[in-house]
Design a protein that fits this description.
This protein has one domain (14-209): Vaccinia Virus protein VP39 (Rossmann fold). 36% of the residues lie in helices and 22% in strands. A 7-stranded mixed sheet has the order 3-2-1-4-5-7-6. It is built from 8 helices and 7 strands, in the order ααααβαβββααβαββ. β1 (62-66), α5 (72-79) and β2 (83-88) form a beta-alpha-beta unit. By secondary structure, the protein is α/β, with parallel strands linked by helices.
Length: 211
């Protein structure tokens, strides 16, 4: 890992300032985020990349969009013909655009309200950093353990998960990887696009559930 790749996050991020994601996304912030066309374009690009990594083989897969926000990813997936279930903890997000047509679910992605082995894929865009942001915090660590087990439980065999997120340092990446390895039978690795360009860098965790 060369010096250009190393993280250099100097400014505090929203997840550093606010204890919970619901504290940050108050009414004004939420509306600004949900109505941002630039944010929509960014998330659509990330979703396209996530689909490349998933490399779906099923003819008619069912995809879970975990931490869907206002539905940027879910709506794009639906528009290109996929069956999608959108889920987010913040109910106010679920009133934007055409997400109502997807029948979104208000629930915590760490405690998924689904039966076992029903999804052909799971996509999560820009949400994980809110769940696991502090290596020393037992509460966030336990939440991530619950998330790993929930994701594995609802995913069908021979199916994949792709999680895009914004870690603030290398220790967070390693900690997340260790928790997935130690608490599930999922196999996978991190995929880093544009590793030497901090402004364009995108980090994905790609996981697969075996037989």
């Amino acid at each position: 890992m060369n010096d250009d790749y190393r993280f250099n996050v100097k400014r505090k991020r929203p997840e550093d300032i606010h204890e919970k994601v619901t504290d940050y996304f108050n009414s004004k912030t939420l509306i600004n985020y949900a109505t941002s066309k630039s944010m929509m374009r960014i998330q659509e690009k990330i979703t396209i990349r996530a689909l490349e990594l998933l490399d779906l083989k099923n003819i008619n897969p069912l995809i879970l969009d975990a931490g869907c926000g206002p539905g940027f990813t879910s709506i794009y997936l639906k528009e290109i013909g996929y069956n999608v279930v959108a889920l987010d903890l913040i109910s106010e997000f679920l009133y934007f655009y055409k997400i109502k047509e997807i029948n979104p679910i208000c629930s915590d992605m760490c405690f998924l309200p689904f039966k076992s082995n029903i999804f052909d894929a799971i996509i999560s865009i820009s949400a994980l950093q809110w769940i696991y942001k502090d290596l020393k915090d037992d509460s966030t660590r336990n939440n991530l353990i619950n998330l790993t087990k929930s994701f594995e439980c609802v995913l069908k065999a021979d199916s994949k998960i792709v999680i895009q997120f914004y870690p603030k340092n290398e220790d967070i990446i390693k900690g997340i990887g260790k928790i997935f390895i130690n608490n599930t039978n999922l196999d996978g690795n991190f995929v880093i696009d544009n590793p030497n360009n901090p402004k364009k860098r995108k980090i994905f965790l790609l996981l697969e559930k075996g037989h």
